Amino acid sequence: xxxxxxxxxxxxxxxxxxxxxxxxxxxxxxxxxxxxxQYPGEGxxxxxxxxxxxxxxxxxxxxxTYRKETTSFHLEKGSVQVSDSAVYFCAPADTGRRALTFGSxxxxxxxx
Amino acid sequence: NAGVTQTPKFxxxxxxxxxxxxxxxxxxxxxxxxxxxxxxxxxxxIHYSVGAGIxxxxxxxxxxxxxxxxxxxxxxxxxxxxxxxxxxxxxxSSLDGDEQFFGPGTRLTxx
Lengths: 112, 111
What we know:
A: 112 residues; mainly beta; six-stranded mixed β-sheet; B: seven-stranded mixed β-sheet
């Protein structure tokens, strides 16, 4: 089955700093890839997605590129805000189960 | 559209009690799934369904049962609750089996 490795948190940054959260995965074939975000006390929201190799997903200033050769989908943002403080999950699609395989999540804390 | 709804939001059980976590979606999605979220472990798949009448086990199915009698509903049953089932439970649905839409979650504590 699929597996996901995310960098451990918490990641603590100052406002306007550059963010990278690494994600690598193993999967059968070339599944769609997702980043979900969970704000404190809330459920999961889709942040961005990419459906094929070299696709770049983007939303709210966040970006991630589907790298088939390195099986990676790293999340980046050029200038983080306090409101970006949340837990971020990388998740490739499990095409057999029509579900997702999640990484352990990376907690981001942005200080003013 | 209400999207994916879950009830209850919070529940406290004693060891050995049974209960059903409700999940419903109004988007006519064929695919539905249940996950549990534990600290430091992300979300793990409990059971999933690819359509009404069809369910199967995920990564961590022990202690849980599901059924899917309608497209809209996908309840999760705990037959005899154990402290190890203390967790936050999320239900999700999907139109195409890729992008998942999540409910708000149920926080369950088993004493």
